[in-house]
Known about the structure:
Helix 1 packs parallel to helix 3, helix 3 packs antiparallel against helix 4 and helix 7 runs antiparallel to helix 8. With 444 residues, this protein is an alpha+beta fold. The chain starts with 7 loop residues before the first strand and ends in a 7-residue tail after the last strand. The strands form seven sheets. A seven-stranded antiparallel sheet has the order 11-10-14-13-12-9-15, with no helix packed on it. A five-stranded antiparallel sheet has the order 21-20-19-16-22. A hairpin with a 5-residue loop joins strand 17 and strand 18. The radius of gyration is 25 Å and the shape is globular.
Amino acid sequence: MSPSTGAYRLNAQGEYLYYPGGGTVGYDHPVGQAQFGLGCITSYRTETDPARKAVFLTRARAQADRLIAQHVEARGAWWFPYGFDFTHSVHSGVDYDAPWYSGMAQGEVISLFVQLAGLAEVCAQDQAAYMAAADGALASLQLVTEGDPWCANVDSAGYYWIQEYPGAVHGAGDYTYNGMVFAMFGLWDYWEATGSQTAADLYDAAATTMARYFPLLRNQRWHSYYCQTHRIPAPTYHQHHINLFTQLHWQTGSPDFADDTERLVDDYPAPGVSGTIQFESGTHALYRFDTAANGSWVSGKGDALLESKSVTFSSDTQAPASMRRRIQGRGIYYLISAGAYTGWWVGENWAKAYLRGTFLPTLFRPDRTVTFPGGSVPVDTYKVAANGDVTSVKTVSFVNPSNAPSDRRAIVNGRPCFQITAGGLTGYWVPAAAVTIDTQPAIG
Length: 444
């Protein structure tokens, strides 16, 4: 609620500023201010204590009021300046002298202004002021012709972009994926609040762009790329991409974005999964990789293979796992965390060695459609308890292809499955490899 130390903290007026190196001079950081304010609005909506609610609302309004006070007007739009010089530590060409502007900020402040304007506790006069600020920011996202400042453009293939890091020349920039989607949420909020066709058209254009360029964002079987210009894998942003594409699916209803989310989850799943490995009887290959002490990936080590061996179990057995993740250049592995094989990794194989239970769900909003094959091909479906026990198995077959709704995909006992939500198979999981899932042409 009131961060008071570190590089990002509140000043005496409750305004969220950036203090380089934790120093004493604070600078405006529009994305930080918008995100902090939006977090306060979320907490305000869920908080039940009146005193805390009041503080959260005060904090959110302090950010919006600061942004309005610091804005500049140019080209018929409102712009929200960063108050400090900035050079990206990894991406060449991202080098700014203050003041500078970001399309990510221009979009996120729209969300802050619109959401504040939608609160009944904000008086009508202030609601109007916040919507005027949102109108000014929206105008900046419509400016795709040359001029300064700028944050949006149409690329040579005709696709609309919102640039988190605009270049010195119009149309040049980092083409950063996460910054683009965060800005899109401002368009979504504005459309949802006002029904604006302009905001809807811009959102649709941006969604079309993300659908078109997903193959360039994706880095198969590894961390996705941060931006189109530099194409550098971004471990710290891969989970952001998963979350953002989930939101795009929920907002658009397009199964394409759900499918994109699943590809990202499979390429590099969140490594925070732990549980119990089920080993089937027989011989298993175990490995030691060059990782951090806790098993995390380290850039300089690259998961290099250090050692391998085979072990044989005469009967089914189990072992605890502290991590499930992709090993660089390999598949998905589990890190054994106790017993005789502590520190060794075993590859995921649903028929031989798998993590018991259901993990990494991708929720569908709306439901998607899975299609069971025709030709009387038998397909096994499963009900699975939280600990991974299979409590029921149904084998179905259909003369003609048959459809069923699904509300989620998850890794169930070591393999991707879809959960069925209607009919006689309600609550059952069907392996993804046994069915097909709906698709549609790219948006737009």
